[in-house]
């Protein structure tokens, strides 16, 4: 009975055909990678992760790149990788939390498709990142204070995204993916709904 209900629920989930790139932007902990993978699977398109690509090219973690080469070097590599990944055509791209702050990245993202801000509030973000050792920007004496400052600084830029989807604590990955697809449905130049 449960298996039948699960199949019915999955069949009822919104689907579509992606025509252009969808780039997920937002703070660390907003779910860009998890939602990106789920969205790409649902839409049957490639999932690309700029942080993963940078790490693969450098044979080092983001934290190691920050420590060894500094944030400025990292941001330059990040911009080059984002442009390359966007040039690969329709797909879902997950970016690092600071990527959208760059005007050249915002322009490249808009030219290739659409930016979708996963809008998670500060409490939810802190719950998701506070036990992670992989966040170089939070390696400070007051990580919550640092996260708060970054959140407040970045919020006006994230609000420039083409679309935004509020993240709710009660949402599963599938629920958030549904919300993203519903939001993308308002952009037929990006997503053609197949179940409308």
UniProtKB/TrEMBL annotation:
Cellular localisation: Cytoplasm
Residues noted as binding substrate in the record, renumbered to the chain: 51, 75, 97, 154
| GO BP term, pick one | amino acid biosynthetic process
Keyword line: Amino-acid biosynthesis, Aromatic amino acid biosynthesis, ATP-binding, Cytoplasm, Kinase, Magnesium, Metal-binding, Nucleotide-binding, Transferase
Gene Ontology CC annotations of this record = cytosol
Task: Please give the Gene3D superfamilies that the UniProt record associates with this protein.
Answer: P-loop containing nucleotide triphosphate hydrolases (3.40.50.300)
The protein's superkingdom reads Bacteria
Q: Which cofactor does it need?
A: Mg(2+)
Per the UniProt entry, the Enzyme Commission number(s) are 2.7.1.71
Q: Where does Mg(2+) bind?
A: 33
Q: What is this protein called?
A: Shikimate kinase
Task: Write down the top EC class of this protein.
Answer: transferase
Q: What quaternary structure, including any partners, is listed in this protein's UniProt entry?
A: Monomer.
Q: Does the keyword Transmembrane helix apply?
A: no
Q: Can you name one GO molecular function term for this protein? A: shikimate kinase activity
> Which family is this sequence assigned to?
Belongs to the shikimate kinase family.
Pathway(s) served = Metabolic intermediate biosynthesis; chorismate biosynthesis; chorismate from D-erythrose 4-phosphate and phosphoenolpyruvate: step 5/7
As its record notes, the protein acts as a catalyst of: shikimate + ATP = 3-phosphoshikimate + ADP + H(+)
Residues binding ATP, per UniProt: 29-34, 135
Q: What does this gene product do?
A: Catalyzes the specific phosphorylation of the 3-hydroxyl group of shikimic acid using ATP as a cosubstrate.
PANTHER family according to UniProt: SHIKIMATE KINASE (PTHR21087), SHIKIMATE KINASE 1, CHLOROPLASTIC (PTHR21087:SF16)
């Amino acid at each position: 009975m449960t298996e039948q209900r699960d199949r019915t629920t999955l069949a009822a989930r919104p689907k579509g055909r992606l025509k252009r790139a969808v780039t997920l932007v937002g703070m660390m902990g907003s779910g860009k990678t998890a939602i990106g993978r789920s969205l790409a699977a649902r839409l049957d398109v490639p999932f690309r992760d700029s942080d993963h690509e940078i790490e693969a090219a450098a044979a080092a973690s983001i934290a190691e790149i920050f420590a060894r080469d500094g944030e400025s070097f990292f941001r330059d590599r990040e911009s080059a990788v984002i442009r390359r990944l966007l040039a690969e055509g329709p797909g879902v791209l997950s970016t690092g939390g600071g990527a959208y702050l760059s005007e050249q990245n915002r322009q490249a993202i808009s030219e290739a498709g659409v930016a979708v801000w996963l809008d998670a509030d500060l409490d939810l973000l802190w719950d998701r990142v506070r036990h992670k050792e992989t966040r170089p920007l939070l390696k400070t004496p007051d990580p919550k204070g640092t996260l708060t400052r970054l959140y407040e600084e970045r919020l006006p830029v994230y609000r420039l995204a083409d679309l935004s989807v509020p993240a709710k604590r009660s949402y599963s990955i599938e629920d958030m993916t549904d919300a993203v697809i519903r939001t993308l449905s308002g952009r037929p130049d990006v997503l053609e709904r197949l179940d409308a």
